[in-house]
Amino acid sequence: MIEFKNVSKSYGNGTKALDNVSMKIEQGEFVFIVGDSGAGKSTLLKIIMREEVATEGTVVIKNRLLNTMKKKDIPYFRRHLGIVFQDFRLIPTMTVYDNVAFAMRVIGAKEKRISKRVPYVLDLVGLGSKADSLPNELSGGEQQRVALARAVVNNADIIIADEPTGNIDAKRSCEIVEMLEKINATGTTVVMVTHSEELVRRYGRRIITIEDGKIRSDDISRVGQKREDFVLPDLDIGSKRAAREVDEFIRSYHSDRRDVNGGESDEQ
Fold first, then answer.
1. Of 103, 134, 3, 13, whose CA–CA distance to 57 is shortest?
2. How far apart are CA 149 and CA 48, in angstroms?
């Protein structure tokens, strides 16, 4: 699914952001990427998203070699990705609704489908009442949830989350991670960068630690083992009806991919 072989990345100013990184993330894994600021985490994500190209080594994602990928093919490749950026990257002149709908429009989804799907996903992240608001009218946590809604609206094969809980409280952080866990349970690969040691310790997932551009550890020892002594906040998502809707969304996460894409395959 995602494979780095001896990948290094250097910038023009001489900075070596990644140094001989090799890793393989299989389809359906949930992986935390951790490390201090400047360790190379963001560069790694940018290479996965094909925003940056490795200086040395090879990167293969979904059987596609990213090193030599043509510029015209990048948008089609990114259809497989749902991305939650650390800086949100919301379009300031668009409403919350249109920011999420934009992710569907760029892949050619029909407006009838968009008009049903977007309000549904916004309700799931607790922003149904904010559909007509502009990004600058939202709190940082609300903007983060818009970014999450945009990432999941197209039923992506891979979700890349760059500090998705960095601007929200512990309760909402757990809600977001647990939604990502449920989506992961459908077979979706999740790669999440975080500085939250509590979240990493709470959830029994593979942990890749990056330090000075190198992978210092790749820990799978706790996979499947959640910490029992972690006090999980009360996840009050509003009502039993809301909980049922979340479960329905998770069950249908991949089943309506063709409908989301306007009835056509996204392969080009």
1. 3
2. 20
